[in-house]
Amino acid sequence: MQKSPIRRSNYTPRNKEGLEGIIELQLRVVSDYLHVGSGKYDVEVMKDVSDVKQLVEDYLNGVSKGIPNNVDQYFSRVAFLMVREKDNVVIPGSTIKGMVRSRLELSIPGSCYIVTGPSTSSSAVYKKIFKPDPNRGSDRFDVDKFPQVCPVCDLLGNMGLGSRVSFSDFVMTSGKVDYVKVKDRDYEVATKGSIFTGRVLYKSLKPVELGMLLYGFGFVNSCNSSKVMLLGRFKFSDKRFGRVQFSLKTPMADCNKLVSDFVKQFNPRNINEEW
Ligand SMILES: [Zn+2]
């Protein structure tokens, strides 16, 4: 299920003259499986609708007596499905945005925590990896450090504050979809090596904020390839799941410098997500 973005009002970009552009990214599944769920536990019709129609018509017209015994091939297994958009398996832009946002919130000392939900924050593995600050919460940023606004909210938006970055869905462009059983339920997954591509649009950014955005995608050392990032179901409970790496589809001028300038100014925690 895709979360609808929070509506924002009275937004005036404070940095009208800033940078704008598009970052084209590629996400590669580096663990055995990736499951980003649609929230649907369902069957999926595998064949063309016209085939199914024909099957039903033949049955109704008495051409075939009874439902043919190969009818199983018309349906997938009952499983937790991935998200689909026009027949493509996708990772919703809102999921990607949540991933970037949570990394920035956890990395930048003094920012607030908007993203982290109770189901995530109770995980022992999550706590071990990210060591969240118990004094942070939604809208609880460090006013000594940031007198006006939390820098992550300033970049990605908050109630009454527009986002200056927008995330497209990431569409699966190569790889394989399979089914994996976890605790007696089947999950539709993208398997290791599968590639998803997507875009990030930004406007009115300062160079250091563009560096921040790149850092949020895991480009913490170099822009050639991101660190391993955790994404989707079971990322904290099953090592076969949820590890991805990003790369830039089109090179970006001064990318490494944008990131290192961000690091110099904000002194973020470099979090190793591999466990
Ligand atoms: Zn914030």
The gross shape turns out to be elongated
Spell out which ligands are present.
zinc ion
Radius of gyration: 22 Å
> Could you give the count of β-strands?
12
End-to-end separation in angstroms reads 28 Å
Poorly predicted runs of 5 or more residues:
1-13
Structural class designation: alpha+beta
Biggest sheet layout: 9 strands, antiparallel
Task: Describe the protein.
It is a single chain. This protein is an alpha+beta fold and 275 residues long. The protein is 24% helix and 25% strand. The protein contains seven helices and twelve strands. It has helices spanning 49-60, 93-107, 118-121, 124-130, 151-156, 207-216, 255-266, and strands spanning 19-29, 33-34, 37-42, 79-85, 88-91, 165-167, 170-174, 177-182, 185-191, 195-205, 229-230, 243-248. Strands 1, 3, 4, 5, 6, 7, 10, 11 and 12 form a nine-stranded antiparallel sheet that branches. A hairpin with a 2-residue loop joins strand 4 and strand 5. The model is unreliable at 1-13 (pLDDT under 50). The site of zinc ion has 7 residues, from helix 5.
